[in-house]
Amino acid sequence: MKKEVHRPCPRFGCALLGALLSPLALAVTPPTLSPQIPFDVKVTLPPTLESLQRDFDVLSWQTFIALNWPAQDDGSPAPGLIGQEDGPTVWESWKESYQIFRPKGEKPAPWDAPASIPKVCEGLKPGRLLQQMGKVAGVLDEFIQPFQSGPLVDQSGTYTRNEIVVNRPMFDDILNKGLYSIEGQKAYFAASDKNLVAFSCGSTEDKQVGAIMVKASWKVLDGNDQRSRFHTVDALVYTPGNIDPAHGPIVEESCKAEPVGLVGLHIVHKTKEAPQWVWSTFEHVDNVPEKTTPPDQRKGPYLFYNAASQAEINQPPPRPWNPSVKATPSQIVREIPLTAETKALNGTFQALLRTANPQSVWANYQLINTQWPADRAKDCGAPSPTNPLGSPAPTFLANATLETFIQGTVPQASSSCMDCHNNATTRVTQNPRTTFADFTYLLERAQSTGAAGSKP
Q1: Sign of the CA dihedral 376, 383, 264, 174?
Q2: Peptide bond into 394 cis (omega under 30)
Q3: In 3D, which of 313, 316, 299, 268 has the Cα closest to residue 439?
Q4: Residue 378 carries which DSSP code?
Q5: Nearest 5°: phi and psi at 164?
Q6: What is the per-residue pLDDT across 39-60, written as a single tens digit (0 to 9) for each?
Q7: What pTM was computed for the model?
Q8: With contact defined as beta carbons under 8 Å apart, do 105 and 180 qualify?
Q9: 3-state secondary structure 110-122
Q10: Do the domain assignments include residue 195?
Q11: What residues make up the domain containing 332?
């Protein structure tokens, strides 16, 4: 039941957002298990800071459920319910960044083409390719965290693995606009009078799902892990070789077939009511304790914290970083605790997931928080000239497995999804400003189709 007394909205908050919301977005729907990705947020009236936060948190959970729905061979949702068995999910059929931004700016293979694998992985048990840290200068890959702050190491001394995938609408935008290469980006901007890229927005009126990005973190599972608690996939854990000591330790190229468990999931969803995107972050419930929990009550066991360890909290492991050897385990706590409201909503959806299967692996995941624009841009295709960030609410958001070492509440230093990604550009510089890449750094991964060393 809605409270009678509400906190005032933020400066660019509820009154403006409520005035701009479309009638179809205004509704109250009880939580359900559905394979339909939400088109947009559904807002309860009258909108307040608390009610809007909950509405976007519900959107996060509904998106999480739809994306993790069991998938058929073509990636579409399978009959049945989520969590009855653990298997391939809808989002795992999407295109990974290394399949889109290819060496020498090569055109990506069609959406339904199988992914290629390095030769060193051939002959191993088939699995999901998880890239490691590239050891060649200038190469961005799925392993490096934001700001390259360091790898996350589990209690067995093994590095976590990261990946980024995009859905079909976003893939088609990149492909059709030629944004996968530097030359393609140049041609796109040469034919445009704007210094920006804009991906598609979801719309309730049009019943259209907009662009979605997913960044996942995976833990290699070993004898210390209870596998029934994780969404698990077979993976090819790949480590590129490095023979240049100037760019890190000398590492031999390798590939191992390993079972991995999902420990973090960051979902970024662009909608008409949130053109600055909705930033939803989920983690496994066993990841880390909260900083506000007294040390003698951090019993665990946790995946990235050991109550008996004397290691410094929330610090990257010592260099050199070499993923091919065991490392010092990370000692991580959550800097910003979950709110009581988020915990209550998590309980609601976790209970709902257990109605499909009392042992559902998905009930072992929790929403950490959702960041959304309290002052949304009026145009899906362009940021607001006066408030491009859209007054993020909340101000800070971090996933302990993806923004591990930049958690906190320090402006310009701690993780804020919209604040950080507002700086994303393409590989093309246009006067009078650098090109705007619609809150994604992916476009900076484009390579040149020309000779090595070609400048954008």
Answers
A1: positive
A2: yes
A3: 268
A4: S
A5: -130, 130
A6: 999 999 898 999 999 999 999 9
A7: 0.90
A8: yes
A9: CCCCCCCCCHHHC
A10: no
A11: 18-103+113-177+208-421
